[in-house]
Write a sequence for this structure.
């Protein structure tokens, strides 16, 4: 029975800590825009696209996607 003397206050303390964390998140606006993040995943935004790499794979004048890049053409010597 002495273990209940420890477990009940610990459980009440954890419950109060959880309640305090929930109330803090409500006051700071954590739940204001629930649908925004879900919709942003589906939108096409140019800022979210991966950066294009213009590195040359061995001096052939082509980038990794197989297209000739303008920077590699200007570096080639005739």
């Amino acid at each position: 029975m002495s273990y209940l003397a420890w477990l009940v206050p610990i459980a009440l303390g954890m419950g109060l800590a959880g309640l305090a964390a929930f109330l803090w998140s409500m006051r700071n606006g954590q739940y204001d825009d629930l649908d925004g993040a879900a919709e942003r995943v589906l939108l096409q935004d140019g800022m979210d696209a991966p950066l294009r790499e213009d590195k040359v794979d061995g001096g052939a004048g082509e980038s990794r996607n197989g297209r000739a890049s303008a920077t590699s053409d200007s570096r080639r010597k005739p």
Notes: The chain has three helices and no strands. The mean pLDDT is 75. The CA atoms of residues 7 and 22 lie 22 Å apart.
